[in-house]
Write a structure and sequence with these properties.
The structure is a single chain. The two termini are 20 Å apart. By secondary structure, this protein is an alpha+beta fold. 6% of the residues are buried. The protein is globular and about 40 Å long. The protein is 24% helix and 34% strand. The protein is built from two helices and four strands.
Length: 71
């Protein structure tokens, strides 16, 4: 389990996700129902997330992110 930091699509907020590498890889390579690629996640570093937190920008999380189902 690892912690990753993402920037939202409008680049104004940062989200902290807890998940494993396989879940993130599955999400990045996913396709929509019409066959088009899913918009990729914008990853940021820990240092950049801390800078945004000091600027009083919105930082949400940590949220659990598991996209691989268990059968």
């Amino acid at each position: 389990m690892m912690e990753v930091y993402l920037r939202t699509l409008n680049k104004k907020k940062i989200i902290i996700l807890n998940g494993d590498l396989n879940s993130l890889r599955c999400r990045q390579r996913n396709r929509n129902k019409d066959g088009s690629k899913v918009v990729s996640m914008n990853f940021v570093s820990y240092k950049e997330m801390e800078k945004e937190k000091l600027k009083n920008k919105k930082v949400y999380g940590p949220y659990d992110f598991y996209s691989i189902s268990k059968l």
